Amino acid sequence: MTSVRFFRSVLILLGLIMLVTRPASGQITSQTGAVRIIVVDPQGGSVSGAKVTLNSPLGSTITKETGSDGSAVFPLLDPGDYKVTVERAGFRRAVVNSVAVKITEVTNLTVSLEVGEVSTEIIVSGEAVQTVNTTNATMGNTISGDVLHNLPLASRNFAFLLALNAGTSAPLPDPTQAGRGTAVVFVNGQRGTANNLVINGTDANNLGNNNLGNVPIPSPDSLEEFRVQTSLYDASQGKTSGGNINVLTRGGTNLFHGEAYEYLRNPVLNANLFFFDKNGTQKPILKQNQFGGNFGGPVPKLKDTFFFVSYQGTRQLNGVSSSITSQFPIIPSSRNQADIETAFGLTPGSLSLLGRVRQCRERERLDSLLFRSPCVSTKISSMPTSTAISAQNTEFSNDSFLRMH
Questions:
Q1: What is the reported pTM?
Q2: pLDDT tens by residue, 144-185
Q3: What would the DSSP string read from start to end of 155-208?
Q4: In the chain, ranges of CATH 2.60.40.1120 domains
């Protein structure tokens, strides 16, 4: 019995050693990426013992040596463009600029060294970066900050861009929605409430119904990038059957940078709706002001410490949104029969108060719960749509503030 236990212990120990000593795979989180570099000679053979240096956009440096298989892995990297330098005795120094690291992705880079002196430097083109994901089976695309800043957004809600990924669908956005609007995205046929939203590694889902209606929405100018993983992501990246949405906000850099903006919508600049104009209906009011800015840079006298702040304010006066439109007419201040008939679009004299009261009392004896009174059905069915008017203009105000260190 003792020998069996000893044999099991040896097997477990060997298994742990194999897990520790095997080539490391790129480790990522919901807000980081990784780089896997493979160094080869001109014949395609693996080059071990090569010195690989990775320079971050903020100036920090990480150095590793390639293993027996010629690979070196840099896990848990912040998204951005990195510089890779590879050195090995008997080979020329190789430099690769603008190696992109994306959120929740592993960037694969193959560097081919040329025989020569180390003092001689060669610049490797960006074609060395492998664009096809061979590290894992996760499906999804990354939308960078440059795309976010240049695509038009009526309400500046980045959630309306989530359907740009393959395997996703969404209703057409309504530019007249009140406030920032509510985006709905369907991933691989799943419901819009089956998605998982993570902002800077923090769960940002709506605890009520798990939709994107009442969740934090940073301004597009404060976002670094986001990715929608549509399928086959591992357990560390998702908890639902729909899409896994990872959002990363911007941070400070070595240089001070900032911007200010104002987006204006005004009825003076808008044309009337086609059917409103045809029926002679006055152009509804839609005034919107979205203003703000951001600023970031290094913290003085603190090494490797940066800051970034962002603010956006929204002021809206909306009388055209379908979400605030009512089909119920305005009740006149004088409640006589003629005015009520006019308000509800009824034929003059068709509203007999004494006759309706008598009919309602007779119906109450038969069905007091359903209340299928002829006076109610006549009032609703006889109301023409031409008398429908928009609700009172709704004011919307929102301020979002983001501070990053």
A1: 0.70
A2: 888 888 888 888 899 999 998 889 999 888 888 888 888 899
A3: S--GGGGGGGSTTEE-PPP-TT-STT-----EETT--TTS-EEEETTEE---TT
A4: 25-130
